[in-house]
Design a protein that fits this description.
With 285 residues, the protein is an all-alpha fold. The protein has a domain of 192 residues: Orthogonal Bundle (MetI-like fold), CATH 1.10.3720.10. The chain contains 14 helices and two strands, in the order αααββααααααααααα. Strand 1 and strand 2 form a beta hairpin. Helix 5 packs parallel to helix 9, helix 11 runs antiparallel to helix 14 and helix 13 packs antiparallel against helix 14. The longest helix has 34 residues. Keywords: Membrane, Transmembrane, Transmembrane helix, Transport.
Length: 285
């Protein structure tokens, strides 16, 4: 224990050890994307910026990931705030967290079984006479708008949002809400003055976790996505395993760019939260 007190950096050793593999992978990706026949080159990155396919893919990926993350946060926040007293019981809490046990591709298959043109809802609508045949059912999977991907990620990530927010709501005293209500505040005032200061940092951290995952995940977009526009992870996979060796540097360059983008946004988020904490410690808003 004395060793740890005198050398706090030792406590970082397990984290650094865990980061060896991903950092090694990132270093190899950077090396492969910047090495050409004549040595160092940025030709792969220039090709990405000139590729309409990549630009369409990155815009589609950012839009889909952002919408899925925001909707998952909103739904999870509403559920946690509305039913936090029920979640104190083991059965409702475990029932809500049950989807976290299953991998994302399992929920992708569930979305196909329910929302595809030949799925459960389509068959029900035909039986009820709402549509003539299953071909009239809206295309919600393998569609260019990414609805199937959105449904899968929202369904899968809402329990994670509740998992992150529930301990925070459990620690907020009920007397805070009673005080705001006594002073004439409505539910919005309660949320703004009581909830938001407590959950802001957790929401931002959860946003970056979900956004980074949905932006780079492969299995769900490959399962229920379209050929164009595709998520950047699917495009990178196709470039990496294509028959042309010339496409491999593009795959490394694409994923390196995404990694750097996520790292930069996470750093900015950390700086914002750290600034808020410092201001709070100094007694300033």
């Amino acid at each position: 224990m004395k060793l740890f007190k005198n050398n706090p950096w030792i406590l970082l050793f397990p984290s650094l050890l865990f980061m060896i593999i991903p950092m090694y992978g990132l270093a190899i990706a950077v090396l492969e994307s910047t090495t050409g026949t004549m040595g160092f080159t940025l030709a792969s990155y220039r090709q990405l910026l000139e590729s309409d396919r990549f630009l369409s893919s990155i815009l589609f990926s950012l839009r889909t990931s952002f919408i899925a993350t925001i909707l998952a946060l909103l739904v999870g926040l509403i559920i946690t705030r509305s039913f936090s007293h029920y979640l104190e019981r083991n059965l409702p809490r475990l029932s809500l967290w049950l989807p976290m046990i299953f991998p994302h591709f399992v929920w992708g298959y569930v979305i196909i079984l329910i929302f595809s043109e030949t799925g459960l809802f389509a068959q029900m609508f035909v039986s009820m006479g709402l549509i003539a045949n299953t071909g009239d059912f809206p295309i919600l999977t393998r569609d260019s708008a990414g609805m199937g991907i959105l449904l899968t990620y929202i369904w899968k990530e809402v329990p994670f949002v509740v998992l992150m927010l529930f301990p925070v709501y459990s620690a907020i005293p009920q007397s805070y809400y009673d005080l705001v209500e006594t002073l004439g505040g409505n539910r919005w005032e309660q949320f703004k003055t009581v909830d938001w200061p407590h959950i802001q940092s957790v929401l931002i951290e959860t946003f970056f976790i979900i956004f980074a995952f949905t932006l780079t995940a492969y299995e769900v977009p490959a399962l229920i996505g379209t050929n164009f526009p595709e998520m950047v992870s699917v495009l990178s996979y196709q470039w990496f395993y294509s028959g042309s060796w010339d496409d491999r540097p593009l795959a490394f360059a694409a994923m390196t760019s995404i990694s750097l983008f996520i790292t930069l946004t996470a750093f900015l988020g950390y700086m914002y939260l750290n600034r808020k904490r410092l201001r709070a410690m100094r007694g300033r808003l």
